[in-house]
């Protein structure tokens, strides 16, 4: 079967190294993400394996939808990306064993699989026993940084800003993401939003340090959303966030002053207090005119605005101007992109922009894939 054109292309100078396994995995709490070197034949995969992307080169029976912009060409083949619910891990391991899919690249290629994420330890023994391969665990943050650095250095249109005024992505070339002073992506501030947030200052390929963090993250949003509404999954969040109106819940500057507070340069539409309208409501007032969609929108704004401010303040402290946001909280969520972009631009008075990346979900597994070369004696360094 002839594969569709793939772009943007990333061409490295040599073919896939013989000392690297062609598959790596990032086992998270919700999803397992796999990056793999395109096998010599097109396998039919289980129905629970999903992709968010288009134009699969796999057979019609395989429910994979690869996005050409997320297939990274490397000389004689391409890297591909897939994911499935982590609850299916044991089932997928058995599928690989039964179909001998791990021998698709040759039996000697899969002696070692690099794995990262919280589940790397949990499934190590099972994977080694059933697949006859060594499951090498890799540090999660090192893999995240390595995967991100690979994308920033080699994938055009990987990074993007979000224009919150026009609701659209503004993609950047590899050259545009480079700093003028260093002719590289470095230095930058990496803000990884998971259950909480971790903030890293990245100064080189393998040089980074954790400079800050917060318990206020995606887990905070999800916990409050469940506590305040009856929603059960993130699909509902996306749907509700499109229809909600936070102004029914939040107290705005205009609600307090009747318009702009020009002395301090505060616009009337600026949020003065998240959920403030509920707080100041009189006990004898009629039922409030807000619904769960309004609550979700307010929560999204509250968490995103605060993370944006924390990121900006850390960038100021660290003396860097480039802020890159990653993590599951951002995945396919333009409202979060919009609010983080607004917050960074607001607090920096237009001097900084929030940056996001297309391969956001797969940075850990990409880093694990390329970290295999360090098993031959090269050690990763952190500051």
TrEMBL record:
Subcellular location: Cytoplasm
Catalytic activity, as annotated: (R)-pantothenate + ATP = (R)-4'-phosphopantothenate + ADP + H(+)
A family per Pfam: Fumble
Domain of life, per lineage: Eukaryota
GO cellular component, as recorded: cytosol; nucleus
UniProt keywords, alphabetically: ATP-binding, Coenzyme A biosynthesis, Cytoplasm, Kinase, Nucleotide-binding, Transferase
Entry EC number(s): 2.7.1.33
GO BP term, example: coenzyme A biosynthetic process
EC category name: transferase
GO molecular function, one term: pantothenate kinase activity
Pathway where this protein functions: Cofactor biosynthesis; coenzyme A biosynthesis; CoA from (R)-pantothenate: step 1/5
InterPro entries membership: ATPase_NBD, Type_II_PanK
Family classification: Belongs to the type II pantothenate kinase family.
UniProt cross-references to PANTHER family, sorted A to Z: 4'-PHOSPHOPANTETHEINE PHOSPHATASE, PANTOTHENATE KINASE
NCBIfam families in UniProt: panK_eukar (TIGR00555)
Protein name per its UniProtKB record: pantothenate kinase
Organism: Planoprotostelium fungivorum
């Amino acid at each position: 079967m002839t594969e569709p054109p793939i772009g943007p292309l990333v061409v490295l100078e040599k073919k896939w190294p013989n000392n690297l396994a062609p598959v790596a995995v990032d086992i998270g709490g919700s999803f397992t993400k796999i990056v793999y070197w395109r096998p010599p034949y097109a396998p039919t995969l289980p129905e629970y394996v999903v992709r968010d992307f288009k134009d699969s080169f796999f057979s019609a029976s395989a429910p994979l939808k690869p996005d050409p912009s997320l297939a990274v060409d490397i000389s004689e083949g391409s890297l591909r990306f897939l994911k499935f619910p982590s609850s299916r891990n044991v089932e997928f391991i058995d599928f690989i064993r039964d179909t001998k899919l791990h021998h698709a690249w040759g039996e000697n290629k899969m002696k070692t699989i690099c794995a990262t994420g919280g589940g790397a330890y949990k499934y190590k023994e099972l994977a080694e026993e059933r697949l006859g391969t060594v499951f090498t665990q890799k540090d999660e943050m090192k893999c995240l940084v390595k995967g991100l650095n690979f994308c920033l250095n080699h994938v055009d249109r990987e990074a993007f800003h979000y224009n919150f005024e026009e609701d659209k992505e503004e993609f950047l070339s590899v050259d545009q993401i480079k700093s003028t002073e260093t002719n590289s992506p470095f230095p930058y501030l990496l803000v990884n939003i998971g259950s909480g947030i971790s903030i890293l200052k990245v100064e080189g390929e393998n040089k980074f340090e954790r400079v800050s963090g917060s318990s206020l993250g995606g887990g905070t949003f999800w916990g409050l959303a469940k506590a305040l509404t009856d929603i059960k999954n993130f699909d509902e969040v996306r749907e509700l966030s499109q229809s909600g109106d936070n102004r029914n819940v939040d107290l705005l500057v205009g609600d307090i002053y009747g318009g702009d507070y020009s002395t301090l340069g505060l616009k009337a539409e600026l949020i003065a207090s998240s959920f403030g309208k509920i707080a100041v409501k009189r006990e004898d007032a009629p039922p409030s005119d807000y619904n769960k969609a309004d609550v979700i929108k307010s929560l999204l704004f509250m968490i995103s605005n605060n993370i944006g401010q924390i990121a900006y303040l850390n960038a100021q402290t660290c003396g860097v101007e480039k802020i890159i946001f990653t993590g599951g909280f951002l995945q396919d969520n333009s409202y979060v992109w919009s609010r983080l972009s607004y917050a960074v631009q607001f607090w920096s008075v237009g001097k900084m922009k929030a940056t996001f990346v297309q391969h956001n979900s797969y940075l850990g597994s990409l880093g694990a894939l390329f970290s295999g070369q360090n098993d031959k004696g090269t050690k990763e360094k952190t500051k």
